[in-house]
Write a structure and sequence with these properties.
The structure is a homodimer. Chain A is of the alpha/beta class. Helices cover about 40% and strands about 20% of the residues of chain A. The first copy, chain A, has eight helices and seven strands. Chain A has a seven-stranded parallel beta sheet, with helices on both faces. In chain A, helix 1 runs parallel beside helix 4.
């Protein structure tokens, strides 16, 4: 019985996700679903990306958080449209919550809509929000074993950002193990090795995401 | 309907958790449910604790993982009973899975049973496994805003371990903000500031957990 219910939930989520995707495609808006553990650097990546690409593209953000609007507060200074979804205990966003808040955006005046999902390496990877693609962020301080131990997200992701590379010297993170594990679950996925606080490696990320935004317009 | 089903799941989980708790109490075994984000240091804490307390107490471990037995492999060298529960995509352990594996342990010859839950700061905090108490681990590299943004676990935890304090100099972690946020969600909870890799602050943790084990015998 539980399995059937779960299937119903996923089916209804998928139907709404398809609607959302059709709407965004028709408006030429690229929606990116950003997923990571708590504190891996999703908001800092958005800060950096708004700084660098805010003058080039019209950016919007949906902030998924269990409670509080702290991440949204950090992005206020970029003068972009931001909507917060508080899940009130819920461990992931779904396509229905996304669909409801899309009305708050002027989609004709948007090139890219970043969705910062709830900080969770597991549940969000199972829910299609209607995004163009999922983006995985993982930080070096979480250890090099994450692609092997939490394969779902890494399998689903269109790109992987390995953040906090500036902290590698102070940890036992093994880049070789990380890359070989990642290859096993997703052989072709592009990997960006970055430090959002120091700025390392971000140029390649800006180029990659810019290309994706331009193609989807 | 979803809410009703969820309540049924939680009710059934709670009933089984009570059974598990009664059984463990009758055998004098302290079960500790360890919860954190991926890579916050649950396994490293267990390694350290087995090293230090393995001669003093009879320790058992249940390793909850989505897939792989990597964490269990890391603990094999301590020659303690370990059972792995692979959730195959599931984002948390529940009391039924715990109940099923308890048969694999000789409970009369156990003082403490550590349960390493799936790496997830959200879902595991909602499921009683029949533990004596939950233990929260959070690492400095995840940022100082975690108690405010993910209050459920911090509210439920009997103790909080702040790990990776050796990395504070390389991050923007603010200890004052962290402690003030933690106080707001759980004013009385003991906080241990530790580094599992360097060994800092672990003495206080060993003393605290030893006392809990002795009391429950």
């Amino acid at each position: 019985m539980e399995i059937k219910i779960m299937k119903n939930i996923l089916d209804r989520n998928q139907n709404k996700a398809n609607e959302v995707r059709n709407l965004l495609t028709s408006k030429g808006v690229l929606m990116v679903n950003i997923i990571s553990s708590p504190g891996a650097g999703k908001t800092t990546l958005l800060e950096r990306t708004c700084e660098e690409l805010g003058g080039k593209f019209r950016i919007g953000v949906i902030e998924g958080d269990i409670t509080t609007d702290r991440d949204a507060q950090r992005l206020k200074k970029y003068d972009i449209p931001i909507v917060v979804i508080n899940t009130e205990g819920g461990c992931h966003l779904d396509s229905h919550s996304i669909s409801k808040v899309l009305d708050s955006f002027d989609l004709r005046n948007l090139d890219v809509l970043f969705v910062e999902n709830v900080g969770n390496l597991i549940c969000p990877s199972q829910f299609d929000l209607g995004e163009a693609f999922k983006l995985a962020i993982v930080s070096t301080t979480e250890g090099d074993d994450k692609p092997g131990k939490y394969p779902m997200l890494f399998r689903e992701a269109r790109a992987v950002l390995l953040n906090k590379i500036d902290l590698i010297p102070y940890t036992n993170f093994n880049s070789g193990s990380f890359k070989s594990d990642l290859k096993k679950v997703n052989a072709q996925v592009p990997l960006f090795e970055i430090s959002c606080t120091k700025g390392d490696g971000l140029k390649e990320w800006y180029e990659w995401i810019s290309e994706k935004i331009i193609i989807s317009r």
